[in-house]
Amino acid sequence: MLKLYNTLSKKLEVIEKKNHINLYTCGPTVYNYAHIGNLRSYIMADLLYRALKYEGYKPRWVMNITDIDDKTIKGAIAKFGSAATVENLREFTKFYLDEFLKDLGEVNVSKDEITFIRVTDVMAQIQQFIMDLIDKGYAYKADDGSTYFSIEKYQKDFGDYGVLVGEKFIEGKKVGARVAVDEYEKENLSDFALWKSHSLNDANIFWDHPVLGKGRPGWHIECSVINKIGFKGEPTDIHTGGVDLIFPHHTNEIAQSQALIGKGNFVHHWFHSEHLLVDGKKMAKSAGNFFVLKDLKHPFAAWSLRYAFLQSHYRSQQNFTKDSLDASGNRIAGLINYMKEPHNSEFVADTKSLDEDLNVPKAISGSNEAFVFSELLGAKLPDLEEIPEEIDRLIKLRLAARNEKDFKKSDELRKQIEALGYELMDTPDGQKVRKKM
Ligand code: AMP
Ligand code: ZN
Q1: Which atom of ligand 1 is found nearest the CA of 240?
Q2: Would you tell me how many other CB atoms lie within 10 Å of the CB of residue 322?
Q3: Which fold has domain 20-273?
């Protein structure tokens, strides 16, 4: 039986066994490449998915793809001009969606088992959900033409707005103001937009509706709707995301959904993973302190990264350094060689630690069992005979330098190749490389 910390109850709770488990993960906004902090949150969700499967829970995993918001509209306009349409937006976001799927594959997230739902594919259901909120009195159209969620009305009927943050969240806060942007601080508690009316900054990107008018959905509503569609109206057993989503995103998801389906019927268990840091600060696109997978210039970036992420518990912050990536690479190389020996199958995995709030660092610390690494923890075990792309690139550059008799450059490139753990030999048949042991 798996026990997990629930952000809502703030306790460890047993995940009950039943026919299947509905698992939902807030997906990416596809306006750019995912950074490795984003990838950490999906790897943590994947560890949970694998642990659920291993324990016989039969999880069904759904993830939304945010392909409409301010940032994606801006990107589509930058690419297609100020007359950009919904079709243009979909083309712009499809590129980053495909890149995201590639990245998930690289870091071995079980992507083929996820049902992905793009927001722009479910616009009619989003509009209907908002109409239902209006009918029940939880949403209203304001003078600015946008439709907002009424926190006051919700609070009057349910009295639990913000409990995901803490019991006393709403105490002393003024309700009734309105906010049109999707991201805001706890201090600025406000009615949030469910449907934003079309503005000049949106080019020709809008959906029309007889009551809501021309516009597009706010950010939070999509996840309420996609949970409902993805699990065909069943409650969500476990909902995952990074800790930054607790407020406002998940807080607002709860309010919107409970307003329609009743208290306690939306999500049973909230699973939040902590942030990846750089120099003590959250890795974020807005802070400019981020790396994406393809920039890591490390021979085994993807699996070293996954292995590095296994070293910290999902509820602990983790600081990213290039050194930790190298150390992981070396450790994995050692493990692969070790596992070629016959005695390794005798090692018993410490899967009990996984049952205690997914304590992966503890589970792997005493274990060298191939199954644990490859299946349960999804740490890829690459073929050491295979030459990684980055090494191949450097070899080609070195060959070109030698052909141009630029021996200084050729020597520098040799050093770079060696620093990455590869040995270079000049043989009568040309350059040969192999992994240093
Ligand atoms: P976004 O594409 O910004 O909606 O973020 C996608 C996911 O990445 C969300 O679950 C975020 O909570 C998560 N996330 C964002 N920044 C970080 C970070 N520095 N470390 C870990 N997870 C993050
Ligand atoms: Zn979400």
Answers
A1: 10
A2: 11
A3: Rossmann fold (3.40.50)
